[in-house]
Amino acid sequence: MNVLYEDHAGQVWLGTDGGLFRLDESSGQAIFRLVSRNLGELEHVLIVRALAEDKRGQPLGGTQGMGLLRLLPDGRIVR
Questions:
Q1: SS3 for 77?
Q2: What does the domain layout of the chain look like in residue ranges?
Q3: Under DSSP, is residue 68 helix (H, G, I), strand (E, B) or coil?
Q4: What is the pLDDT of residues 21-42, one digit of tens each?
């Protein structure tokens, strides 16, 4: 685990050497689920070091070697 972040809506995010995860809770169970990255060959090298939000509340991830990534509402991630 590199960074743990709670956004303005109360969603908890986790940045790790293995990617970006979101905390999902259902039926009293909490589990971190890998966020779909849609980065093609770069998926296996995603190391998330920092997390924040932009003015619209969209998650931003600072990565090692890939720069800044933005998570779009439809689940896609763009560089």
A1: strand
A2: 3-78
A3: strand
A4: 999 998 889 999 888 666 666 6
